[in-house]
Amino acid sequence: MSGIHDLLAGAGVGLVSGLTSGLMGTSPGGGLVIFSVLLFGAEQHVAQGTSLITQIPPTGLAGARRYWRSGNRSPWPWIVWIGIGFLVGGAGGGYAAAAVSDRVLQWTYVIYLAALIALLILRRDRKDGGREADDQDQQPRLPLLLIGLLAGFSSGFMGIGGGLAITVGLAAGLRVPQHQAQLVSLVFSVIPTNLPAAWIYWSKGLMVGWPAITGILAGLWIGTDLGARMANGVSRSVLRRVMIAFVSLMALYMTYKALT
């Protein structure tokens, strides 16, 4: 596969992954893993390493800025406690992934996505959506830390960035308004909290070539900004439906890969 082809394919992977990231306020890792397998024919460990490595630069900055300008906020206590959990969980997930087979990772990915779909379907919108500015610092530390641990472990173990766990954990578990939960998730695509997990994959050479990496980064910058613009123009219920549909497609595709 030529360098030009890898560059263009990488740009396509990054653009689609960035669009879903900005639209749903999750890290782009889910799309990066799946499309790296689909377009590059990468093995599961290589796809996950590629996903984590390309998420180190702050490619979600433009998307986070769009949410911020629309009046959403990400309280610093939330960032601190989720971040602590993320760093610890990420390192543990990375080492755990290196010890299991591609098939185990694929089925774990399917189970994880199915659990997220169930949480999204069962979640009810909170009726006091206008109160997030008043109680934004009142979330208990332990649940935030646990959300960070889950997000970090899923990031390291499955290479998906952890954004889905943060968005669903805040929105479904702590009843944070959807757009605000998505902003907090995008903040973690700016802060390099996945660095410990990415280094584990990097040290083992589990990544695609540099032309593809360059294309993915360019696509992520553009796609995340476009997706965030789209997200701020739709309702919370529409966003949740879009997320359920996208995660369902991811789960179906990974089920197919695990069975073949």
Structure description:
The chain contains 12 helices and no strands. α1 (3-24) runs antiparallel to α2 (29-40), α1 (3-24) runs parallel beside α11 and α5 (76-98) runs parallel beside α7 (141-158). It is an all-alpha fold and 260 residues long. The model is unreliable at 125-135 (pLDDT under 50). It is 74% helix and 0% strand. It is globular. It has helices at residues 3-24, 29-40, 44-54, 61-69, 76-98, 102-122, 141-158, 163-173, 178-187, 195-203, 210-231, 236-259.
Contiguous helical run count: 12
Provide the helix percentage.
Answer: over 70%
What's the β-strand tally? Answer: 0
- The radius of gyration computed from the alpha-carbon positions, rounded to a whole number of angstroms, is 17 Å
User: What is the distance, rounded to the nearest whole angstrom, between the alpha carbons of the first and last residues?
Assistant: 24 Å
Portion in beta strands: under 5%
